[in-house]
Amino acid sequence: EQLLEWSFDGRSCLVGVSLEEYRERTPTSNFKYENTARSIFTLKSLLNELDNFTSLTTFKIRRCSSLTSLPNELNNFISLTTFKIRRCSSMTSLPNELGNLTSLITLNIKRCLNLISLANEFGNLLSLTTFHKSWSSNLISLPNELRNLAFFTIMSIRSCLSLTSLPNELSNSTSLTIFKIKRYSSLISLPNKLDILTSLTTFDIR
Predict the structure, then answer these.
(1) Helix, coil or strand: residue 39
(2) Which residues contact residue 195 at a Cβ distance below 8 angstroms, ignoring those fewer than 6 apart?
(3) How far apart are CA 190 and CA 166, in angstroms?
């Protein structure tokens, strides 16, 4: 049995981990498994044994307000394509091992109010196409390594009130089609050479 999805939701008490089986609507009638775990607000760390879930494709954490860190073993999620973290207000940084998730396509970070920085290894996410970042009042910069994201197509930043600049290397993301930044009271300049983003179809700043 392969675990394909695991979600945390801090709004409920811990009820355990269970596998729920249902048939996919495909001609092969293969089984897909979903593992949903609900955690209490006081959860401070995740088990290192998570590194056994090498078939995991979707990782979601929500409303775990006391969670301070993610396990270094995160880099063993070699099949992970979607990573979403929301309302984890005690988390100040993401592990460098995040950069080893070379299959990651979507990274969504929302309302992690005390997040100060993103790992420099961010630039190793060579499959990343979509990056959403919102409501992090202490984040002041994005990693220069964004320049390595050759397939980067969507970038959305909202309500990062301490963000003062965007990396000039962003202009190297020639596949970027949608760029949105909203509510950026401390931002004083935009990257140079944005005019070379010839694939850009939506440019929204407000």
Answers:
(1) coil
(2) none
(3) 6
Is 0.85 topped by the overall pTM? no
Our separate counts of H helices and E strands in the chain read 0, 10
* pLDDT at 22 (0 to 100): 31
Largest Cα–Cα distance in the chain?
Answer: 54
Q: Encode pLDDT of 11-67 as tens digits.
A: 433 222 222 333 333 333 333 333 333 333 445 555 555 666 677 788 888 887 788
pLDDT at 20: 31
Domain count for the chain, please give it. Answer: 1
Half-sphere exposure of 8 (CA within 13 A, CB side): 27
Range of the domain at 143: 5-205
The CATH number of whichever domain residue 175 belongs to comes to: 3.80.10.10
